[in-house]
Amino acid sequence: MSVLVNKDSKIIVQGFTGSEGTFHASQMIEYGSNVVGGVTPGKGGQTHLDKPVFNTVKEAVDTTGADVSIIFVPPAFAADAIMEAADAGIKVIITITEGIPVKDMMNAKPYAKKRGATLVGPNCPGVITPGEAKVGIMPGFVFKKGKVGIVSKSGTLTYEAADQVVKAGLGITTAIGIGGDPIIGTSTKEAVQLLMEDPETEGIVMIGEIGGNYEAEAARWIKENGNKKPVVGFIAGQTAPPGRRMGHAGAIIGGADDTAEAKMKIMAENGVHVVKSPADIGETMLKALS
Q1: Below-50 pLDDT ranges, the chain
Q2: Which residues of this UniProt protein bind CoA (predicted)?
Q3: pLDDT for residue 239
Q4: Binding region
Q5: 96 and 177, same structural domain?
Q6: Which pLDDT value is given to residue 105?
Q7: What integer pLDDT is reported at residue 259 of this predicted model?
Q8: What's the rounded Cα separation, in Å, for the pair 101 and 254?
Q9: SS3 category, 214
Q10: Which domain holds residue 217?
């Protein structure tokens, strides 16, 4: 089992023929992901990377039966791309684009949800089920199949956590990079819930950062639902000064509960195994599982 993406996923790339879309689509194909085509308006009928190009997502879905889309469309047009994918019946929409205006996401997120699509991102590294499908920009070689799920706001820390977990001999079921923007499609709690319900996932790594209440909400949900699987948590930005944005658009301390310290305290109170350094993730998970 896996969540969101697997070997049966039929993937299209929106923004297929652009430089980012081309580079990452070729990496995904090389990994073995089932990329069935791509969308670039005005270039329909051509082939690119030996795959068909379509003018619209609807054409791509009608022709290929695609159910997953990855978006590399520039920020000004990315929200439209999300809504187009949802309209065409795509079930999982993974948005890599960084810098989508918040106002645009306020429209796109409920639009996708209303149409039954799961939106991951924006400003995220994507989703990977090792050995089956890589739908994102992560280095595939870091991820090996196993029994630990990862949920992370940070791209680079997703890779670090995966490396730690693999080196501990545990491996990964699915890693979900949820993104670091103020408005994202899938929250930490929702991603944790998916992994809690996955029979092959035995433990979960939850990586958050300062700003917002996603991690606190997830930690409370984990406890309310009986701490069924061990969760190891880490919060980035422990030395961040209040009021200053750190890297991600959503990583800003707005109140007392937004600090790393406050989040770590809430997580610990709700039964999450909190680590102060990402270097301890693998070892802590190994202990929690044994």
Answers
A1: none
A2: 17-20, 43, 96-98
A3: 86
A4: 17-20, 43, 96-98, 159
A5: no
A6: 98
A7: 87
A8: 20
A9: helix
A10: 138-289
Q: CA dist 27 to 48, 259, 269, Å?
A: 14, 37, 41
So what's the pLDDT on residue 125?
98
CA gap 200, 3 in Å, rounded: 10
Residues 115 and 148 in one domain: no
* CA 118 to chain CA mean position, Å: 11
Q: What is the CATH number of the domain that holds 181?
A: 3.40.50.261
Q: Residues annotated in the binding site for substrate, as ranges?
A: 159
For the annotated binding site for CoA, the residues are 17-20, 43, 96-98
Cα distances from 287 to residues 201, 232, 244, 277, in angstroms, run: 16, 10, 36, 16
Q: Which residues are catalytic?
A: 248
Q: How far apart are CA 242 and CA 140, in angstroms?
A: 35
Tell whether 126 is covered by a domain. no
d(CA 143, CA 205): 14
Helix ranges (H only) for the chain are 19-31, 57-64, 75-87, 102-114, 155-167, 188-196, 214-224, 260-269, 281-289
Return d(Cα 26, Cα 32) in angstroms, integer: 10
Residues 71 and 31 reside in one and the same domain: yes
Confidence at residue 1, expressed as pLDDT on a 0 to 100 scale: 67
Number of domains in the chain: 2
What is the model's pLDDT at position 82? 98
Q: Which amino acid is at 2?
A: S
| pLDDT score recorded for residue 231 | 98
Q: State the greatest distance between any 2 C-alpha atoms of the chain, in Å, as a whole number.
A: 56
Contact 128, 134 (CB under 8 A): yes
Q: Which residues contact 151 (CB under 8 A, 6 or more apart)?
A: 176, 178, 188, 191, 192, 195, 204, 205, 206, 207, 218
Q: Which among 11, 84, 88 has a CA at the least distance from the CA of 52?
A: 11
Q: How far apart are CA 151 and CA 31, in angstroms?
A: 21
**The residue type at 222:** I
